Amino acid sequence: MRSPLWSVTPFRSYCSDLARNISTERTFVDRRGLAASVPKCLSTQGPDLCSLSSTASVFLLHQGKYGEKKEFYKEMSLLQFIDRLLSKRAVVFMGPVDQYLLLNKTSGSGRWETIGTSSETPPLVLENCLSYDEIKLSALLSVSSFSYFINNGDRNNMGYFEANRSRVEENGVIIGVIGPRLDKSTVMEYREVVICKEQNTSCYGYGPSEEPTLQQEFLKFYGSVNGTYDKVLEQIGSHPEQYLELGRGKYFDRLMYEKRLALSIDTLLIEANYRAKQKNKMAYVHVVGLGLGVWKITHQQNKIFMDTFAQRLELLGDELKHISDELKHISDVRFAYIHETSAGKYSNGDKIKGITLHMIDKNPQEKLAGDDEGKKVNCW
């Protein structure tokens, strides 16, 4: 397996990073019957790398001092902001033209970029919706819940009830993990992962400035170079292994992509382990690609995703030893519909730290048989 472009600072115990910053964090989560993992960012960059909760605090301070909607954020606490990141999500938000369905049943498309600016108009206003910058933080919050399964979870199941209960697992845990969105330029993770002339300019907050920009804070979070296009080109020339050329002067930053994936992968694994431990069972984790559908920008993302997942299994298995029970309650990870035959140096049936890898297209809630019967199913 290719050596990681970055080494790891392990996650602390489940949710502990946010708990250190918000003393009531577990109450905030558990009173809704949910479990929200808020992981730390991983990087070799050291003290300039903030945790997610610290970055959320920086976001509030920045918006209260420099943002267009200062009064909206000025008195907001961190706890209120985290609650907002979960409760103000749209019911539907999809496609390159941002088709949406809001909680108040309003639907439409486009103009999402105006939210939080002086150009916003109802129904797309900050009081009702998350801005694009908030969505980027919200996407790092994963919510999980226990669920009874009515069918095998096929993507086209249309909510039918499977009468033959021997074909499906009775229950399990659904973990809502969000991958990087790269199908639309100049928003979401495209800002950190893709380098291009049109985007990496001072107008979008890159490079030195008299006042700090939100983009600079996100770059600090990921430990990325803060520079306009020409400066980043110098970095590309000195570290070619880190970048994929997309054509027309665009580049894909593998390092930033891997870091973004690691946040979601680690959240999934730690939560699955935690849930299985609570039930004194072993977890059988079903994984499909994070952002590898319509959000994908290059076919190489599939392989990078699989390799990064293998790295996380290796590193978490070692690095969590002194703070938790590692991933002792995960027995299997099944990769479905990713269409890769390996994860790093590992193939179908191989084990990483005692966890068996399966690379087979199956539905998430299909009945487990044989030695796997009775294991706890965790689906993302």
Any overview of this molecule?
- InterPro entries: MavL-like.
- Pfam families: MavL-like.
- The structure is a single chain.
- With 380 residues, this protein is α/β, with parallel strands linked by helices.
- It has 3 domains: 49-139, no CATH class; 143-181 and 256-372, no CATH class; 189-255, no CATH class.
- It has 11 helices and 16 strands.
- The chain has helices at 16-21, 25-30, 52-65, 70-74, 78-87, 132-138, 190-193, 214-222, 229-238, 254-278, 301-319, and strands spanning 35-37, 92-94, 99-101, 107-109, 142-148, 171-176, 194-195, 243-247, 250-253, 283-287, 330-335, 342-343, 346-347, 351-352, 355-359, 376-379.
- It has an 8-stranded mixed β-sheet with strand order 1-5-6-16-10-11-15-14.
- Helix 10 (254-278) crosses helix 11.
- The longest helix is centred in the C-terminal third of the chain and has 25 residues, at 254-278.
- The two termini are 25 Å apart.
- The model is unreliable at 1-50 (pLDDT under 50).
Helix content: 25-40%
The biggest sheet amounts to: 8 strands, mixed
- Helix count equals 11
Strand order of the largest sheet: 1-5-6-16-10-11-15-14
Instruction: Look at the structure and give the mean pLDDT.
Output: 86
Let me know the number of strands. Answer: 16
Number of domains: 3
Q: Which descriptor suits the 3D outline?
A: globular
The topology string of helices and strands comes to HHEHHHEEEHEEHEHHEEHEHEEEEEE
Please give the alpha-carbon distance between the first and last residues: 25 Å
What share of the residues does DSSP label as strand, in percent? 15-25%
Structural class: alpha/beta
Q: Which stretches are low in confidence, meaning pLDDT under 50 for 5 or more residues running?
A: 1-50
Report Rg.
21 Å
